[in-house]
Amino acid sequence: MNLSGKAVNYWMKTLNVFAENIMVITDDIALPYGTLRMRGKGSNGGHNGLGDIQKVLGSEAYPRLRFGVGSEFSKGRQVDYVLGRFTSKEFEELPIFMDKAIDGVLAFCTIGIERAMNTVNTK
């Protein structure tokens, strides 16, 4: 997933979709578990997948929804953490956060990024 730019660019060109009409959804260790952040543009925040998309597209101007997974891992264990299993509590809460993310994507598709951000970017 760290080399996502090529795939995003391929589908944008194949389907003739402008960058402002895509939604990249990614995990994010910089956000606490279950926190959602939607933005219409911005830096990659150190996320390799977002960085590759930015590099291939030549722009930071594409919508993204970051899904917080937390950072409860020891040094050097980031990959194991991100690709590992949810705790039982996280797994129990997951449908709530997924529903909110789905609602955010639907809002993006129907009412636009600005208003969708207002529904998703809450505490």
Fold and architecture overview:
- This protein has a single domain (5-120), classed as Peptidyl-tRNA hydrolase (Rossmann fold, 3-Layer(aba) Sandwich).
- The mean pLDDT is 88.
- It has helices at residues 5-15, 48-57, 78-83, 88-111, 113-120; strands at residues 24-28, 36-39, 64-68.
- It is built from five helices and three strands; from the N terminus they run H-E-E-H-E-H-H-H.
- With 123 residues, the chain is mainly alpha-helical.
- The longest helix is centred in the last third of the chain and has 24 residues, at 88-111.
- GO terms for molecular function: peptidyl-tRNA hydrolase activity; tRNA binding.
- It holds the Pfam family Pept_tRNA_hydro.
- This is Peptidyl-tRNA hydrolase.
- Keywords: Hydrolase, RNA-binding, tRNA-binding.
CATH topology: Rossmann fold
Could you describe the largest sheet, including whether it forms a barrel? 3 strands, mixed
* SS-based class: mainly alpha
* Low-pLDDT regions: none
CATH class: Alpha Beta
Counting copies of identical and different chains, the oligomeric state is single chain
How are helices and strands ordered from N to C? HEEHEHHH
How far apart, in Å, are the first and last alpha carbons? 28 Å
CATH superfamily: Peptidyl-tRNA hydrolase
Protein name: Peptidyl-tRNA hydrolase
Organism: Sporocytophaga myxococcoides
Keywords: Hydrolase, RNA-binding, tRNA-binding
GO molecular function: peptidyl-tRNA hydrolase activity; tRNA binding
Fold blueprint:
Layout: H1 5-15, E1 24-28, E2 36-39, H2 48-57, E3 64-68, H3 78-83, H4 88-111, H5 113-120
Parallel strand pairs: 1-3
Antiparallel strand pairs: 2-3
